[in-house]
Amino acid sequence: MIDDAGYAKRMNTLPKHVVSRTLEKLEWNNSHLMEGYIQKEASKLKPLDLWKRPTRKRPNAS
């Protein structure tokens, strides 16, 4: 399979936050294991702007 669009490269560069009670080592590129109190750990992600989505302009409704 050829990835002409570069999706694999893009996915490998994006941060991945994994929640697990059993994993000790992550094999994926740019992956981070979230342990302990998950709600507290997840709240740390928001300041990193990982949750921001690009906004699209909507056409004016007439």
SSE topology sketch:
Layout: H1 7-13, E1 16-19, E2 31-34, H2 38-43
Parallel strand pairs: 1-2
What features would you highlight for this structure?
62 residues; alpha+beta; two-stranded parallel sheet; 2 helices; 2 strands; 13% strand; flat
Short description:
This protein is of the alpha+beta class. The chain has helices at residues 7-13, 38-43; strands at residues 16-19, 31-34.
Summarize the structure in words.
By secondary structure, this protein is an alpha+beta fold. The chain contains two helices and two strands, in the order αββα. The chain has helices at 7-13, 38-43; strands spanning 16-19, 31-34. A two-stranded parallel ribbon has the order 1-2. The longest helix has 7 residues, at 7-13. The termini are far apart.
**Largest sheet entry:** 2 strands, parallel
* Quaternary structure type: single chain
Query: Strand percentage, roughly?
Result: 5-15%
The rough form would be described as: flat
Number of strands: 2
Number of helices: 2
Helix/strand-derived class? alpha+beta
- Percent helix among the residues? 10-25%
Distance between the termini: 47 Å
- What strand line-up does the widest sheet have? 1-2
